[in-house]
From TrEMBL:
Biological processes, Gene Ontology terms: protein insertion into mitochondrial inner membrane from matrix
Species of the source: Psophia crepitans (common trumpeter)
GO cellular component: mitochondrial inner membrane
MF GO annotations: ribosome binding
Protein name: MAIP1 protein
Lineage: superkingdom: Eukaryota
Amino acid sequence: AFSVVSKLLSQHKLDLLDELVSAEVLQVLKEKLSLLPDNHRDALAADIDAIMYTTEGDVRIYYDDDGRKFVSILMRFWYLNGANLPDEVPGETKVFQIVFGDESTKEKRHLLTANYEFQREFTEGAKPDWTITRIEHPKLLE
């Protein structure tokens, strides 16, 4: 899901995210993506083969005021991306660079991070669909 959604974000195809991402998050993304330079938008895309590491950041089970049961999982992703980013991104945070190949054919990639929160209702009879309720690409999508 992370790879698919990140690629759609980078291509600015938000209409294809209606069933995957909450309406509130989509509204915020529409505003932020319209202000992003092309190289930052390119850096949002995470090819599934370029995901280096994933970990869960937080897992919560909670009930709303109507007694419905929900599960929320915050996932953190580290992925390689070849977008043309400066060595220093806004905010004074260093972007790691990894060089593949020898000096004549080297290919520069950045190791980037993203946080996606997935939520699902587990009340009896609810649809078994997961929805993304938070999308963060630090220093790219702020």
